[in-house]
Design a protein that fits this description.
single chain; alpha/beta; Rossmann fold; 2 domains; globular
Length: 268
């Protein structure tokens, strides 16, 4: 079998990244790992997130993956550099692609970032955006209730609209014209967030931008699979809650998830 791409997240949110990779790289096989036993990462220390991420990468390496996507903003913010130093396989995160797209989108140079507490505290988006353009003003906001709302399926609900208004009203006050959806769950709230922020605000989906960056990386390294005669094979692994994962995945991915395997990730 053609070598697969490894994709991992703290839980199910990274499936939005997997979905974009499937759409933009239709001949690539994916191996997805969701750390559903230890989710969320957003309220954990950097040391813990790094340890968890290294365990997951060691597991993915047993599957002979050719590249790894850290499909988690928190892990990208806190663990990416450590992973790149330790493992000799191309590893990319979701923060830089999202930041690049936001800088290209903004006219006012006022960019909003919504993310988990850990991603906001890390300042990773702020640092990346200011390296790209020192004149950028960044307004960051942690939105911890967005993840449970998504996982409860409340994508179009009055409760969700109320929470969005509560979190995002100050971003409107700053007149941001680009808003980075800095958690992999948040693109699933894109319609509701877009309604509140208005058409003049460009919503930046790092999942979409990361799939583009991955395609460019594989092409540059002559690793891109373009063999149309071979059907891709996707495999899914989690650390807990197989049935809930499959239910969520079937609502997000373009292909049905027929089987998901349980992994004792602590053994890696």
């Amino acid at each position: 079998m053609e070598q697969a791409i490894g994709v991992f997240d703290s839980g199910v949110g990274g499936l939005t990244v997997a979905r974009e990779i499937m759409r933009q790289l239709p001949y690539e096989s994916l191996i997805y790992f969701g750390d559903t036993a230890r989710v969320p990462y957003g309220n954990k220390s950097a040391e813990t997130v790094i340890r968890f991420s290294k365990q997951i990468v060691r597991f993915l390496m047993t599957k002979n993956v050719k590249a790894i996507v850290v499909a988690c903003n928190t892990a990208s913010a806190l663990a990416l550099s450590s992973l790149q130093e330790e493992f000799d396989v191309p590893i990319i995160g979701v923060i830089e692609p999202g930041a690049v797209a936001a800088v290209k989108s903004t006219v006012s140079k006022n960019i909003g970032v919504i993310a988990t507490e850990a991603t906001v505290k890390s300042g990773s988006y702020n640092k990346c955006l200011r390296i790209l353009d020192p004149k950028i003003t960044v307004v960051s906001k942690a939105c911890p209730l967005f993840v449970p709302l998504v996982e409860e399926g409340l994508l179009e609900d009055r409760i969700t609209d109320d929470v969005i208004q509560r979190y995002l009203h100050e971003l409107k006050d700053y007149q941001v014209d680009a808003l980075i959806l800095g958690c992999t769950h948040y693109p699933l709230l894109r319609n509701a967030i877009g309604r509140y922020m208005g058409e003049e605000v460009k919503l930046v989906n790092p999942a979409y931008e990361t799939a583009k960056a991955l395609k460019a990386l594989l092409y540059e390294r002559s690793m891109l699979n373009e063999d149309t005669s071979v059907s891709p094979h996707h495999a899914y692994f989690v650390s807990d809650g197989v049935d809930n994962f499959i239910k969520f995945a079937d609502n997000v991915l373009p292909a049905d998830v027929k089987m998901t395997s349980l992994v004792n990730i602590e053994s890696y």
